[in-house]
């Protein structure tokens, strides 16, 4: 740390002194005001005693008190309750700032120098000159002043701050050091009855202390010493009367409790040349810190109205520091950066100086002696005996209490294992920092006694009491009290004479940590750190002191952090091995915090001292800070050119300075720069600010899309507000290729280029982009403000060149040069240029600090040709902050405006094609700013009406789309492609959608017909897939003819909610072209992206089970076919207010199968499914008729509708049929992507290929193939805005094979598992069919008479003929084994099978050809009448091995058997 004037012992003793309060009558206050002082200020210079005092401790040992000092302050009776003591009040902060500000280093003082290595450091005002870049002989100057290598620099501003801070400490309940020990009651002798005034003052003191209305001030003990002072004015009062009153006071209060003080002995005014001593001036800046705090909190002192005795810069710093109690005003005069304002302020600084008044003008030197004698008399005969008496009383109380209670408590702790509290470290408490003791608590009495002993310099007894109190507080986990005891115990140990014990630094560290982290009291932590750092410094422990000071820096107080950082820097340079770089670094930090606190001169001093270390050593950050300060100093010295050089260094480099500094630099730089360009005569010079990121320039060709008009929603298309996405661009390119291929009969032209109306640094910019006449060209330029202050740009526009058709940009250089800058052209020239290209101008463009902002500049070409955009032109100024205060003495200067330009030079991508490109660094062209203006083209806008944003899964909604031709050219060839082609349909003209009465009544999107009641049979319709459009993702928009200019067409658009819940992004790309062929732009597109939130509706699961009826029986008979089971579950969470769904119809669409009827028709009109309910439906599916199933002309589908309500929805019409085919194509493509290996047999083929019989797996799969699509149509009723709405939709389930379940929910994409890398491929596994598929090779049915009558009386044995029908369901040979001796495993039919046997051959071995049926005649023998289950036979089958012997023999698998076959045997003889 820097050297201090006081010793460490003096500093610590003066930090903790007895506090004495003062209460004056009005008359006594008037007497002291003659000297421009109050009574407390009158005594302040004489409060240090020059003689020794004595008192005896409780052991009757004489204690000597040396260099004793008291603190006398005024008590304000109307004081408000004291705020929380954890932080200083705003008034105290302002006063501390003013104290530091008023204490500056003296100019011209002798230099204190330090030499270390190749560094020569100076610590006075010469350092300001030595650090200047134009001061060439600074090392020579330093060599002359470096007479000593010992560091003895002083920092008086830090000592003033420290002293004022310690005297401004708010009183606290956990310690008594700054509580009042005594109260001086002062009454004038001129009062009518002085004794009555003493009584009033005594009562007032008693009320303040004991009423409880005020928490401030605090009193040391209840019985406060009251000392009665009779103040006598010698020049006006009656001295005899005063003596008489004094004698009466002695009788009342005792000779040791009162005093007669005579002042104002000077009767004549002082002459002009007479020197009047003024010992009060050095104390007034910190006078009465406790009472002044109240006034400062109520009203901020008007510092701006007073002139400072320092220079104009210091006056400005005072206003800046007073703005926020230490934080500078960013736009104050000292940091405004306006050179003219600064110059005016400097001129008027000397005129505002006012000579301060003289204090003590009515006092003589004898009066000074009277006051000094009074203070000594009060201290030795009043205060010290009072303290001695209270020490004895407290000691006696503590001894008596401790003997009874504390000894018992200590013994109890010992008995029950209570441990000792740690001394060197304190663990964090359990939220006990707010623990409060009652005033009579023994712990507080010990602390009170310790504080009394400390105040009278009895440090040994004080240490003992603090140590004892510390243990008690730690045992109670009262951390605030414990921290105070630890702090004072460490100070007492240090101050003990003879150093009986070493300084316990760990006590101080624990106290600081507790204050700061546990109690959150930075004021106490700062006091503790200041004292501890000074003690460590006196012991030579500079490293520990620096670490402690750095830890105390924080964001809550810039002034405190700056001072502590500066002292830490001095600690680094005081070490035995000087740490100069650490010194410089922390001086930079201190200067930064000084700047934030408004202490500009101190900040400049810190920067200049640090510059001596950083200059020329590649430490750019420190140099940037110092360059800014040097720039301002250079201007004040009349050297603006050098100031510009210093400022320009910050501009050319990336500045990291504060916003205040950068703002000042910018304004001053603009002021000087304007002078430079006015001399040079250049109209549009290149400006360095703001920075332009040319590579980020984006260009948009065309009009901006119109916003929504009423219910219309405009297509999103492309805009500069959208972020560029490479994946999205690739997706749009693929869609455009599909559209172009559809428009060119399936082929993409060789010269095809995707439409690019939006160019950036990620697009292909090697070709000249096309633009259209009378359509704007929007250029988005990215500006970056590297500074932390705002920039104001005005009249911002583009610079361009233009060449007509037939002239390139280079060939038309002469013409282009005339059009480079239209801002400086005359009105006539501007009109002529507007006939070619209209240039838009942005009048105001503001850039916030460190903001990156884009400006969109527009050009409107009116003729065809080549346009080249070269740069931007603008006016630059520093943006004014609205918080800038107006000074009364200064006029607000107008902002400085500079006109200039910047070029837009975009470098293309690096070339890497040829060998030369790879060897050298070459870049390709980037022509995004060089568009070719083409003739007019059609322009279409797309609007959507009633387009939803949320749908249920599978919900059908009808919307409308409107196409508007807003150009002067007709358009045709409308097409659309989408990423979700199954989401929408325009309808099928061939299918037709005639409006039925039912659909019109219910606003239904379906075509509905009246249904016959009670009919459960399906209605079949045969349609062709070609009627619903080709199998392509490109849809032709059914607009008749071409759209003429200004014409619009509106079409219906059916939408279907996605099958998977969540938010889906659906993209549309609309294509159109001009009727004229051969234009430069062949076609144009419109993009539209929409987000649809799909909510869950129904979950449909379907499965098919083969019927046991043999396939030979026709579909007209009752039986045969396949049973289709449909499970419908309501999985909606009532988000859209839907509570139940109505299943109104189930339809099917297939080439081979169709639903014939509902097996379990519901009795209600339709099937209702409420929330979380499930319904199961069963239908019978039969193969289609042969004439329907085969068609050579078209791909025919059979639609079968099974309605469950009172109306029938035609599923083969729009939109049901459209979405059926679209979803089917999507699912087929998804299955093809999932299984890309090998061709599959088309589902429409009735016979397998010749090679099918050789592939067992394919044969089994083809046998189970069903290829039946189920359409479940539902309706839901929603009440919205007191209106009932009908929601309707359809879900699709694709049944591919028998026995496999299918669901309507979209399959979730599961993450692929990690597969280990194999270097040797495994052999392919053998083709083994699963047992579930092999168990369905053969269908077996028993044909018999269900009732058979037999006379058991005549014949005891009944033989019944039974026919067993075996059917091969597959396209392969099957070996079958029939075993009649097999017994059923079902226990419920075991009794029905008793007394029953098969007679004749009981085991058969046969082979069935593909699709062959065999009959076996069996005989069953019964011995008694009854009911029998004759389905006891077992059937095993296996595919026959191939004749070539390549395939392995398959094991036979038991076939799936039908249900029980019951026969009734009746006895006809009874």
Tell me what the structure shows:
By secondary structure, this protein is an alpha+beta fold. The chain has 35 helices and 55 strands. The strands form twelve sheets. Strands 12, 23, 25, 27, 29, 31, 36, 38, 40, 42 and 43 form an eleven-stranded antiparallel β-sheet that branches. Strands 10, 11, 13, 15, 17 and 19 form a six-stranded antiparallel β-sheet that branches. Strands 14, 16, 18, 20, 21 and 22 form a six-stranded mixed β-sheet that branches. The longest helix is centred in the N-terminal third of the chain and has 51 residues, at 365-415. It is elongated and about 160 Å long. About 14% of the residues have low confidence.
Distance between the termini: 131 Å
**How does the helix and strand content classify structurally?**
alpha+beta
The number of distinct β-strands equals 55
Shape: elongated
């Amino acid at each position: 740390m820097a050297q201090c004037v006081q010793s460490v012992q003096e500093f610590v003793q003066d930090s903790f002194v007895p506090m004495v309060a003062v209460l004056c009558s009005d008359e006594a206050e008037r007497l002291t005001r003659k000297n421009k002082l109050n009574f407390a200020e009158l005594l302040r210079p004489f409060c240090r005693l020059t003689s020794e005092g004595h008192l005896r401790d409780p052991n009757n040992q004489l204690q000597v008190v040396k260099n004793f000092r008291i603190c006398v302050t005024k008590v304000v009776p109307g004081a408000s309750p004291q705020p929380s003591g954890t932080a200083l009040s705003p008034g105290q902060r302002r006063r501390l700032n003013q104290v530091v500000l008023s204490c500056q280093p003296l100019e011209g003082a002798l230099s204190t120098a330090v030499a270390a290595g190749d560094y020569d450091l100076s610590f006075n005002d010469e350092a300001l000159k030595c650090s200047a870049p134009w001061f060439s002989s600074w090392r020579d100057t330093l060599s002359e002043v470096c007479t000593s290598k010992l560091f003895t620099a002083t920092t008086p501003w830090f000592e003033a701050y420290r002293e004022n801070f310690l005297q401004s400490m708010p009183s606290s309940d956990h310690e008594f050091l700054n509580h009042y020990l005594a109260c001086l009651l002062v009454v004038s002798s001129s009062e009518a009855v002085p004794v009555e005034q003493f009584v009033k003052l005594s009562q007032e003191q008693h009320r303040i202390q004991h009423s409880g209305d005020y928490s401030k001030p605090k009193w040391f003990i209840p019985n406060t010493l009251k000392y009665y002072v009779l103040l006598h004015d010698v020049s006006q009062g009656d001295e005899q009367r005063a003596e008489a009153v004094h004698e009466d006071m002695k009788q009342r209060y005792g000779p040791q409790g009162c005093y007669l003080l005579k002042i104002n002995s000077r009767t004549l005014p002082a002459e002009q040349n007479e020197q009047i001593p003024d010992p009060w001036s050095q104390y007034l800046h910190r006078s009465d810190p406790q009472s002044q705090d109240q006034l400062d909190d109520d009203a901020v002192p008007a510092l701006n109205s007073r002139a400072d005795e320092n220079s104009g810069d210091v006056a400005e710093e005072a206003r800046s520091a007073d703005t926020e109690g230490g934080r500078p005003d960013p736009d104050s005069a000292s940091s405004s950066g306006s050179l003219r304002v600064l110059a005016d302020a400097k001129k008027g600084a000397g005129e505002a100086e006012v000579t301060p008044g003289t204090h003590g003008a009515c006092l003589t030197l004898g009066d000074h002696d009277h006051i000094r004698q009074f203070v000594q008399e009060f201290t030795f005969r009043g205060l010290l005996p009072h303290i001695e008496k209270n020490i004895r009383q407290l000691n006696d109380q503590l001894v008596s209490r401790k003997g009874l209670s504390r000894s018992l408590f200590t013994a109890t702790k010992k008995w029950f294992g209570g441990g000792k509290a740690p001394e060197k470290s304190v663990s964090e408490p359990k939220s006990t920092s707010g623990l409060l003791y009652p005033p009579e608590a023994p712990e507080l009495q010990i602390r009170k006694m310790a504080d009394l002993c400390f105040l009278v310099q009895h440090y040994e007894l004080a240490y003992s009491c603090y140590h004892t109190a510390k243990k008690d507080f730690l045992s109670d986990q009262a951390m605030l009290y414990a921290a105070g005891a630890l702090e004072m115990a460490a100070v007492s140990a240090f101050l003990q004479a003879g150093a009986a014990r070493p300084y316990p630094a760990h006590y101080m560290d624990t106290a600081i940590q507790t204050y700061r982290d546990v109690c959150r009291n930075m004021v106490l932590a700062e006091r503790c750190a200041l004292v501890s750092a000074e003690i460590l410094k006196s012991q030579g422990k500079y490293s520990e002191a620096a670490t402690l000071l750095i830890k105390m820096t924080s964001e809550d107080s810039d002034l405190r952090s700056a001072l502590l950082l500066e002292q830490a820097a001095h600690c680094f340079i005081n070490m035995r091995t000087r740490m100069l770089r650490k010194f410089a670094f922390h001086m930079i930090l201190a200067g930064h915090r000084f700047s934030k606190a408004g202490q500009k001169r101190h900040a400049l001093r810190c920067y200049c001292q640090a510059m001596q270390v950083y200059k020329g050593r590649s430490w750019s950050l420190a140099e940037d800070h110092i360059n800014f300060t040097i720039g301002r100093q250079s201007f004040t010295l009349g050297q603006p050119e050098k100031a510009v050089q210093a400022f320009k260094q910050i501009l050319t480099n990336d500045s990291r300075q504060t916003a205040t500094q950068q703002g000042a630099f910018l304004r001053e730089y603009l002021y000087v720069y304007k002078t430079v360009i006015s001399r040079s005569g250049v109209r549009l010079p290149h400006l360095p600010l703001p920075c332009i990121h040319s590579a980020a320039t984006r260009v948009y060709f065309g009009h901006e899309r119109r916003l929504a008009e009423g219910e219309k929603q405009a297509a999103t298309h492309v805009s500069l507000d959208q972020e560029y996405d490479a994946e999205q661009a690739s997706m749009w390119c693929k869609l455009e290729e599909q559209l172009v291929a559809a428009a060119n009969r399936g082929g993409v032209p060789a010269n095809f280029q995707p439409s690019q109306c939006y160019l950036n640094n990620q697009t292909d910019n090697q070709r000249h982009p096309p633009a259209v006449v009378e359509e704007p060209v929007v250029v988005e330029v990215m500006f970056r403000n590297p500074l932390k202050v705002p920039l104001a740009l005005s009249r911002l526009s583009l610079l361009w060149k233009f060449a007509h058709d037939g002239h390139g940009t280079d060939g038309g250089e002469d013409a282009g040069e005339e059009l480079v800058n239209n801002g400086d052209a005359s009105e006539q020239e501007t009109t002529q240029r507007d006939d070619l290209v209209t240039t838009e101008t942005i009048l105001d463009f503001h850039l916030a600090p460190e903001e990156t902002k884009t400006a969109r500049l527009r050009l409107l070409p009116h003729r065809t040709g080549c346009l080249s955009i070269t740069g931007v032109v603008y006016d630059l100024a520093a943006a004014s902050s609205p918080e800038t205060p107006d000074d009364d003495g200064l006029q607000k200067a107008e902002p400085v405006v500079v006109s200039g330009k910047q070029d837009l030079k975009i470098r293309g991508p690096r070339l890497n094609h040829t060998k030369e490109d790879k060897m050298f660094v070459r870049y390709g062209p980037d022509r995004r700013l060089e568009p070719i203006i083409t003739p007019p083209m059609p322009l279409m806008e797309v609007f959507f009406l009633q387009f939803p944003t949320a749908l249920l899964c599978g919900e059908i909604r009808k919307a409308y789309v409107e196409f508007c031709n807003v150009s002067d050219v007709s358009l045709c060839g409308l097409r659309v492609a989408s990423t979700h082609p199954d989401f929408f349909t325009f309808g099928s003209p061939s299918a037709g959608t005639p409006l039925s009465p039912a659909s019109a009544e219910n606003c239904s999107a379906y075509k509905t017909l009246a249904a016959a009641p009670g009919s459960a049979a399906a209605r079949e319709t045969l349609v062709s897939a070609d009627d619903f459009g080709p199998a392509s993702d490109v849809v032709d928009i059914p607009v008749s003819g071409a759209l003429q200019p200004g014409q619009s067409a509106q079409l219906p658009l059916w939408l279907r909610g996605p099958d998977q819940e969540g938010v889906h992004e659906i993209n549309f790309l609309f294509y159109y072209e001009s009727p004229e062929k051969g234009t430069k732009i062949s076609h144009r597109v419109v993009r539209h992206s929409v987000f649809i939130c799909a909510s869950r509706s129904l979950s449909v699961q379907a499965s098919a089970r083969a019927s046991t009826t043999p396939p030979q029986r026709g579909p007209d008979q009752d039986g045969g076919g396949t049973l289709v089971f449909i499970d419908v579950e309501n999985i909606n969470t009532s988000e859209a207010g839907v509570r139940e769904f109505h299943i109104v119809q189930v339809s099917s669409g297939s080439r081979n199968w169709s639903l014939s009827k509902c097996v379990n028709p519901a009795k209600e009109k339709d099937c209702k499914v409420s929330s979380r309910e499930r319904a199961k439906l069963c239908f019978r599916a039969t193969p289609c008729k042969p004439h329907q199933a085969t068609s050579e002309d078209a791909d025919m589908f059979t639609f079968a509708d099974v309605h469950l309500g009172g109306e029938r929805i035609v599923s083969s019409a729009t939109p049901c049929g459209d979405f059926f085919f679209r979803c089917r194509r999507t699912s087929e493509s998804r299955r093809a992507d999932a299984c890309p290996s090998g061709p599959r047999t088309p589902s429409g083929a009735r016979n397998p290929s010749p090679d099918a019989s050789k592939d067992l797996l394919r044969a089994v799969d083809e046998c189970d193939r069903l290829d039946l699509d189920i359409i479940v149509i539902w309706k839901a009723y929603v009440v919205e805005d007191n209106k009932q709405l009908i929601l309707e939709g359809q879900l699709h389930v694709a049944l591919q094979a028998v026995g496999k379940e299918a669901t309507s929910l979209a399959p979730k994409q599961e993450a692929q598992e990690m597969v280990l890398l194999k270097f040797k491929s495994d052999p392919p596994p053998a083709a083994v069919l699963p047992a579930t598929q092999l168990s369905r090779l053969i269908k077996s049915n028993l044909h018999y008479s269900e009732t058979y009558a037999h006379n058991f009386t005549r014949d005891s044995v009944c033989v019944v003929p039974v026919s067993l029908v075996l059917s091969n369901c597959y396209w392969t040979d099957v070996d079958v084994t029939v075993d009649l001796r097999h017994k059923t495993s079902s226990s419920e039919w075991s009794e029905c099978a008793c007394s029953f046997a098969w007679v004749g051959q009981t085991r058969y071995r046969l082979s069935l050809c593909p699709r062959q049926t065999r009959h076996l005649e069996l005989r069953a023998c019964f011995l008694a009448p009854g009911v029998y289950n004759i389905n006891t036979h077992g059937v095993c089958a296996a595919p026959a091995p191939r004749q070539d012997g390549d395939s392995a023999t398959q094991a036979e698998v038991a076939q799936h058997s039908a249900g029980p076959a019951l026969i009734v045997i009746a006895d006809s003889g009874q």
